[in-house]
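Posted in: Protein Modeling Q&A

I'm a second-year student putting together a small comparison for a lab meeting, and my supervisor asked me to include a predicted structure for Ig-like domain-containing protein. I've never done this before, so apologies if this is the wrong subforum. The sequence is pasted below exactly as I got it from our records. If anyone can share the structure token output, I'd also love a short note on what stands out.
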Amino acid sequence: MAQFLLYRHSITSPWEGEAEHVYDFSFSDCKDLFELSAIVPRYAKLGETVVLRCNHTVVENQLYKVQWTKSGDKLFQYIRGRVPPYINHTIPGAKIDWGQTKPSELALMDVQHDASGQYACTVTLESPIYSKTSEYHDLTVIKIQNIDPTIEIFKEVFSVGDMLDATCTSGPSKPVPEITWLVNGRRPPDTYMKPIVKAALDSASAMRLTFPVSDKLGAEVQLTCLSTIPGFLNHKADYHDYADYRSSSIIGNYWVKI
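Accepted answer (user: helix_wrangler)
Welcome! Here is the predicted structure, written out as tokens:
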């Protein structure tokens, strides 16, 4: 989309010897003036320090301002040539780590749940006067689980055709973790898993598994309960791919009684 660009120049007044700003207009296509993206961690643990990075291709002498916003509200501005160069607004749920903060990087320390939200950065050129805003990215501050999930199985010996009935309960966290069952390392269909709502759990979750016992399971059966943030990704993911990961397993060769 073609737009008007505003160019700013400084000249010296012959009468007073002071710099004046002169603006020129031109008609041009703005969309490819520079590349811009915001790098925001998807999750952060309670109390951690996170660094938000505003990646752009603007050279230093053309950069006028970098601004961070959260859900549309101004948080922080860097203005080149200003003394001091930084303007910070209220940052709910965090403090600025000035030791790690740079013109295009905002470091937030001791993050709390109120720091969760959508973040974006805006870059403004010196000349032509043009601003561009990145896409918004979610940051969620989590309180991780401090215990592994517990598995309760209601019957230990089964015959082919019986329904295996078990419940998994996570440890408390915020947000509430998601539970996934694995039977011999594979995720069963959703129809066999049902969330359990228990008000007394307080930031914990529970999931019931009812699974038909079959001779195809083999002589040894392994039940695994995963309690994770985010929810189950895929069978190739390991614990490094999750912001919070806890698991418990029961292995036995006594479940299938033919």
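A couple of things worth pointing out for your meeting: DSSP finds no helices and 22 strands in the chain. Residues 9-28 have pLDDT under 50 and may be disordered.
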